[in-house]
TrEMBL record:
InterPro entries: DUF1007. It holds the Pfam family DUF1007. This is Polyphosphate kinase. It comes from Litoreibacter arenae DSM 19593. It comes from the Bacteria.
Length: 210
């Protein structure tokens, strides 16, 4: 996702790139209970993490069991109010998710990979409905790319589709908004929206009534 050549707010340029995968998990009653999230960090950020945590001194791109244990949970200690860069919407309502559960971490071919579970509050029934899942940083400091597997577990009757963002269209809208402002205008005071969600792949899961 390349934004450097476009005149947009400075914080709209991503600094960390994360390949992302999702597992949408249903219980034996067909209710949505959890979403498992996989984050695979880019090479440069993985290198920074390895240096910070003193990992992989032999530079073979893999971790020992001790290093793996040391790294696990490094990205699961969230500050209050952080939504985990995941939005799950059902019937126009954003569902409440727990903080990260059962975190894991590893290094594969030099890239740090982590997983965690998010429990869905209320375990809603998805009966003839569509649930939308987007992974994004509202400020777009981190760019999440839905390049890893997306799957549904616990139900075999659900289907899902990927809706890719209209990046060119969203950038054009942002440019049009910015052109209406003075160069030193405060974006928040002028209600310029955060743009992360507009650049996110929308995973839509539809399940029939049981």
């Amino acid at each position: 996702m390349l934004l450097a050549s476009v005149t947009v707010p400075a914080n709209a340029h991503p600094h960390i790139f994360v390949d992302t995968g999702l597992e949408i998990i249903f219980d034996n009653q067909g209710k949505l209970t959890h979403v498992k999230v996989t984050w695979k960090y880019d090479d440069l950020y993985s290198l920074f993490l390895a240096e910070d945590y003193k990992l992989d001194p032999d530079h073979d791109g893999e971790l020992t069991d001790l290093e793996r244990d040391h790294l696990t949970g490094f990205d699961a200690d969230w500050v209050e109010g952080y939504a985990g860069d995941l939005e799950v919407v059902l019937g126009g309502k954003v569902l409440t998710l727990s903080g990260p559960l059962e975190p894991t971490a590893d290094m594969v071919d030099g890239r740090i990979i982590s997983t965690h579970l998010r429990e869905v509050s209320g375990t809603p029934a998805i009966e003839g409905d569509t649930v939308s899942l987007k992974a994004f940083d509202p400020s777009h400091y981190t760019a999440y790319d839905m390049t890893l597997p997306v799957k549904v577990s616990g139900r075999s009757d659900c289907t899902f589709q990927r809706v890719e963002p209209d990046i060119d269209g969203q950038l054009a809208q942002m440019q049009a908004l910015l052109l209406t402002l003075d160069a030193d205008a405060d974006l928040e005071e002028n209600d310029i929206p955060l743009i992360g969600g507009e650049f996110a792949t929308d995973i839509r899961v539809t399940c029939p009534a049981l």
